[in-house]
Amino acid sequence: MEIPLQITARDIDLTDAIRAEINEKAEKLDKFYDRIIRCKVAIESPRRHQHEGKLYSVHIYMTVPGTELIVKRELDKDLYVAIRDAFRDMRRKLEDFASEQRSDVKYHAETPRAVISTLFQDRGYGFLTTPDGLEVYFHKNSVVNGDFNKLKIGMKVRFVKQAGDKGPQASTVTIL
């Protein structure tokens, strides 16, 4: 961190053990993402709840390049649990931020397309031909929405390929 960790408390006296716990968790975040500019932790015990007893809230304000990440963990009976949960939530936010910075985007492969080349309506199966010439078997049960009877040779379809006993077969066939 460029600016040292700041810990503030309202309506509560922080012990050395609590400060050490917060420092340890902040150092772990700093090791995880080394571009943290500032981290401020605010702990308060806003009120004593009638039935619950003393409750704590932990807020973490973290400045990273380009934005500020904020976690507000509201009212927990155990201060250590509130601290742990707040830092766990901040780590998740930091992971999301870091993956955005790295431009980690999941791309899903496009579902293969094919044309119905052979159809045996009376036997309940047929064959698809992909643009690269691969012939893929399909059964009437693999046709989405039970549209097998609507199929005609030359129709364009989308399918999910899997390995079959005698070669590739379509587990799902959808009419385009």
From TrEMBL:
Sections of the chain in a coiled coil: none
Entry superkingdom: Bacteria
InterPro entries assigned to the protein according to its UniProt record, in alphabetical order: CSD (IPR011129), CSP_DNA-bd (IPR002059), NA-bd_OB-fold (IPR012340), RHF-like (IPR036567), RHF/RaiA (IPR003489)
Keyword presence, DNA-binding: yes
Keywords assigned: DNA-binding
CSD domain span: 111-175
Gene Ontology CC entries for this record: cytosol
GO molecular function, one term: DNA binding
Pfam families reported in the protein's UniProt record: CSD, Ribosomal_S30AE
Protein's UniProt name: Cold shock DNA-binding domain
Organism the protein comes from: Candidatus Sulfobium mesophilum
Lineage, uppermost ranks: Bacteria, Pseudomonadati, Nitrospirota, Nitrospiria, Nitrospirales
